[in-house]
Every structure is written in structure tokens, then in C-alpha cells.
Design a protein that fits this description.
It is built from two helices and five strands, in the order H-E-E-E-E-H-E. With 87 residues, it is α+β, with helices and mostly antiparallel strands. It has a single domain, classed as GMP Synthetase, Chain A, domain 3. The strands form two sheets. The chain has a three-stranded mixed sheet, covered by helices on one side. It has a two-stranded antiparallel ribbon with strand order 1-2. It is globular, with a radius of gyration of 12 Å.
Length: 87
């Protein structure tokens, strides 16, 4: 059984190169849902025009797919301007 903590631990490996922190620590990962072998979550960017959006999505999917038992990953990309402290 896949746990939310395992998913978050996997996503901690995805770093924002501009801020030098992982996406979980930056509170950019939200709404983690696990249904059997499917994991879904939302990546909340600081701006809708974030040039790293596609890269974050690909890296997050790769990180979660490495977990044993994960067969499908669903990622919703969103933006919340001002949601990251210090930005």
C-alpha cells in the first residue's frame, strides 16, 4: 500500500533550482490522493507562466513512478501568486 508520506518523500527529491529548496518544503505540492495504484496531486506554481512548469511536472512524475506499486500518476498544474513565502 502506497502512503502519502512515501509520495511526499519521493517528491522531496524535486528541487526548485531558483529557490534552492524542494517542492514539498516550499508547499508547492497539494491534495495528494492515493487510490490503489494511482497517485494524484497538484503542483502549485508561483506564477501561471512559470518557465519550469513542464520540467517540474516531468520530474515529479518520474519521482513518484519510482515508488513500488505506483502504476499511474495524475498531476494537476496550478498557480497561486504569492503562495510561496519570500517570493
Amino acid at each position: 500500500m502506497i502512503t502519502k508520506e512515501e509520495v511526499l518523500d519521493a517528491l522531496r527529491t524535486v528541487q526548485d533550482p531558483e529557490l534552492g529548496q524542494d517542492l514539498v518544503g516550499l508547499d508547492m505540492i497539494r491534495d495528494v490522493q492515493i487510490e490503489g495504484d494511482r497517485v494524484s496531486f497538484t503542483v502549485v506554481l508561483t506564477t501561471p507562466a512559470c518557465p519550469l512548469g513542464m520540467e517540474f511536472q516531468e520530474r515529479c512524475e518520474e519521482a513518484v513512478r519510482r515508488l513500488p506499486g505506483v502504476r499511474d500518476v495524475g498531476i494537476t498544474m496550478s498557480a497561486d501568486v504569492g503562495s510561496i513565502d519570500g517570493v
